[in-house]
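# step 3/5: fold
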Amino acid sequence: MNITAGTLRGRKLQVPDLPGLRPTPAKVRQALFNILADVDGMRILDLFAGSGVMALEALSRGAASAISIEQQRPATRAMELIRTGWKLEEQWKVMSASVEKGLATLSGHHFDLIFADPPYNKAFTTLLPQWLDQHAISCELLVMEEAARVEPEWPAGWQCRQSRRYGDTTLHFLSHI
């Protein structure tokens, strides 16, 4: 898998072969960052980070910082190797924890963009906004990736501004009402 644009463009990452690990395809990443247009200087939170590719794409395109939370230790070890090997220690923090526990350590923080790619069909699209509210974590934009066949019900206080479908994947763009 390669970084598609920016200062890290073309760099290859090794993605561990783990059950449930499903990195966001290049086509979807490119589409997302085309929609966002400019992430320069943004603070990014990458949830259910897997390979860390979304944080890396954002950093490559000028994001000021990124935090990736992933539960599977082999995946976080792989991200740590990239973090040190690519000299991103100052910009990128990798947390090995469940998303719910990781969010508890970030209570009260604000992010410009939160990206979440939870396991499909597991109701995380409903739970995640609730967890953010519970821990007083705010954001300008929450982008959630979900299976295209799923029609999520958003919790009170959150509004889906738009959804974009890419094959079997849909990106939902949410914000607080």
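# step 4/5: annotate
The radius of gyration is 15 Å.
# step 5/5: archive (pending)
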